[in-house]
């Protein structure tokens, strides 16, 4: 797959973008609501690695919100073809979790807190506000982001007052790191991939938005996803954080209005199809990378 640096956000209703967070354990006490409407299907090896909060990035919060195991479709140890027919069967219709299709343990070893601080501490990173229509950008040294801004989400903060490190990456400075990332091997014919890399605190996330298809992989931590098909606009306020939406709106949704949900852990990759609405919530301090197909 040809992969370049790049952002997401084309085609979304305004050009969303994310928010901010820090070290520490998982985010407690937000999943008290009813049952989700459905879970995202899984494809690949069964089982999972559990939470890899990882050295220095904090660790887990919530037990019991993982996706159930799936039957293997791609046998462990085989190399699936780039345009594997099973991938194309769902690529245009539904999100899926892929398991066991890549090994990013070498990349993960480079993404510990200490390694990233040593390599990039003095470099500037660009933060975006965590609202659906995210235009404000703030540049800070990576070390300042990690040591001062990377905190658990304030549940009372507005999206426009919450900074998130995701995307807007400097691919010259961070190129040597991103070259170690193994992207998902499947692609939609005619597309290439563009990476967005991020690190964010527990309880942080991006509120509902949509754009083109792509993948999201968690390197450390766990990420909860909420998804709706393109024809089902979610109930949300564009300046409300995912955490606030989860606390205030989610519990009021009748079962038929609930999103598809899943938790993505290290070793798993979520594929989201074109124009699907989605919101994210980092259950732990998380390191993550998306590959946008366009
Ligand atoms: O990983 C995240 O928190 C944001 C991901 C996202 O919304 C996206 O890839 O479009």
Task: State the main characteristics.
294 residues; alpha+beta; Jelly Rolls; 10-stranded mixed β-sheet; 4-stranded mixed β-sheet; globular; disordered N terminus; binds 2-oxoglutaric acid; JmjC_dom; Jumonji domain containing 8; cis-regulatory region sequence-specific DNA binding; JMJD6_ArgDemeth/LysHydrox
Word description of this protein:
It is globular and about 50 Å long. The protein is of the alpha+beta class. It has 6 helices and 14 strands. InterPro entries: Cupin_8, JmjC_dom, JMJD6_ArgDemeth/LysHydrox. Residues 160-294 form the JmjC domain. GO terms for molecular function: cis-regulatory region sequence-specific DNA binding. This is Jumonji domain containing 8.
What's the multimeric state? single chain
User: Which small-molecule species are bound to the chains here?
Assistant: 2-oxoglutaric acid
Question: What coarse outline follows from CA principal-axis ratios?
Answer: globular
Largest beta sheet, briefly? 10 strands, mixed
Strand residue content: 15-25%
Instruction: Give the helices and strands as they follow along the chain.
Output: EEEHEHHEEHEHEEEHEEEE
What value does the Rg take, in angstroms?
17 Å
The CATH architecture name reads: Sandwich
CATH first level: Mainly Beta
Q: What's the helical proportion of residues?
A: 10-25%
């Amino acid at each position: 797959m040809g992969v370049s640096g790049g952002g997401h956000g084309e085609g979304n209703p305004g050009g969303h973008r994310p928010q901010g967070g820090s070290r520490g354990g998982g985010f407690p006490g937000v999943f008290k609501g009813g049952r989700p409407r459905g879970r995202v299907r899984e494809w690949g090896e069964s089982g999972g690695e559990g939470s890899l909060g990882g050295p220095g990035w904090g660790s887990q919060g919530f037990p019991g919100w993982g996706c159930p195991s799936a039957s293997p479709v791609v046998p462990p140890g085989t190399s699936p073809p780039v345009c594997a027919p099973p991938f194309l069967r769902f690529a245009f219709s539904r999100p899926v979790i892929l398991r066991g299709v890549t090994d990013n343990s070498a990349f993960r070893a480079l993404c510990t807190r200490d390694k990233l601080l040593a390599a990039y501490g003095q470099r500037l990173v660009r933060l975006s506000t965590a609202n659906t229509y995210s235009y404000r950008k703030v540049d800070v040294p990576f070390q300042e982001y990690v040591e001062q801004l990377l905190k658990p989400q304030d549940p009372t903060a507005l999206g426009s007052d919450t900074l998130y490190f995701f995307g807007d990456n400097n691919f010259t400075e961070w190129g040597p790191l991103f070259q170690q990332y193994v992207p998902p091997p499947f692609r939609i014919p005619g597309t290439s991939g563009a990476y967005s890399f991020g690190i964010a605190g527990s309880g942080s996330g991006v509120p509902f938005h949509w754009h083109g298809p792509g993948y999201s992989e968690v390197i450390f931590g766990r990420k909860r996803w909420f998804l709706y098909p393109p024809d089902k606009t979610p109930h949300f306020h564009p300046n409300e954080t995912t955490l606030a939406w989860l606390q205030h709106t989610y519990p009021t949704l009748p079962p038929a209005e609930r999103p598809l949900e899943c938790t993505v852990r290290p070793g798993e990759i979520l594929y989201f199809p074109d124009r699907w609405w989605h919101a994210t919530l980092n259950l732990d301090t998380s390191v993550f990378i998306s590959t946008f197909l366009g």
